[in-house]
Amino acid sequence: MFRPIKNIVWSVLNRLGLGGSVQLYLESALKQYGWYKSFHDKQSVDASGNPLPWYTYSFIFFLEPRIKPHFEVFEYGSGNSTRWYGARVRRITAVEHDAQWIQIIRPQLPANAEVLSRELGESYIQAPKEKGARYQIIVVDGRNRVRCTEFASEYLTNDGVLILDNSERAFYQRAKDLMKERGFKRLDFQGMAPIVGHETCTTVFYREGNCLGI
């Protein structure tokens, strides 16, 4: 009963030149990943509305199975990534300069997540040292990324990795050079990310014996 109706609908759509677009929406990886929902909601989420880091999809898929419950994570910038890490690691600490955004994101965070409110400048850049901890993962995804990369890399554990988002931008080249000078190798994950339609790149810097098993 329903198959003839379905066939008629597809026939009409194809005659209108819309069949390919509808099929792309219904069956594409963009729908599976949740890109359409993220674009509509203007939030970095998966197809079910769960939070995702605003990284390239290729890096999210690479990273997620390598996360361990004992990890301590620090990130410059806060948002759905803070929520995502909070569901997977022992503790996530973020630093944020936007007071209004902090008021929005704090109520959404789990108990093991904390956002430090710091004005842009040295207190923001040096926030990783405040807890007296070392981190398996440090994410540089906020402001002044070159200076933050330079400072934060000293607060990694021996097996720690540093993630630099939007690393394709020319003005972050110095950050990549600094990490190479300090003996880190790198992997670039280029492709689409939630919300936006253009390509971007997420880079992970690592050394031998790192916590992600690279």
Automatic annotation (TrEMBL):
Native source organism of the sequence: Dyadobacter helix
Protein name: FkbM family methyltransferase
